[in-house]
Amino acid sequence: MFLFLTVVQAIVAAALVGVILMQRSEGGGLGVGGSPSGMLSARGAADFLTRSTKWLAILFVVLSIGLAAVAVETTGGDAIESTLDRTVAPAAPADPLGPATTDQPAATGQEAPANPDPLATPAE
């Protein structure tokens, strides 16, 4: 159902783009010359393109709302919440006064390394 509505939505969108691009910016619609009355006159073409644009836009909005409703119904709200991993223990807060990290020598009387940068040449 979702795939079918998506394909229909794409077809309606392409038709809407085509109909809009056929219209003249002044509202002349295709700019077809000829008799002032009739379906294929400039006025008749403009009316046809205006009406078809209106109905295609309405259909596009209705399909968008329908696709949104189907997508919410398909995925559901529980699917997102159930994927959370709740077994991970929370991280311990950092204690600035606690034991030293590996970057610093511990306060047990050990000396700091003479050359902490492994890429630097040893000092003589």
Automatic annotation (TrEMBL):
Belongs to the SecG family. Keywords: Cell membrane, Membrane, Protein transport, Translocation, Transmembrane, Transmembrane helix, Transport. It is found in: Cell membrane. The chain crosses the membrane at residues 55-72. This is Protein-export membrane protein SecG. It comes from Qipengyuania pacifica. Residues 89-100 have a biased composition (Low complexity). It holds the Pfam family SecG.
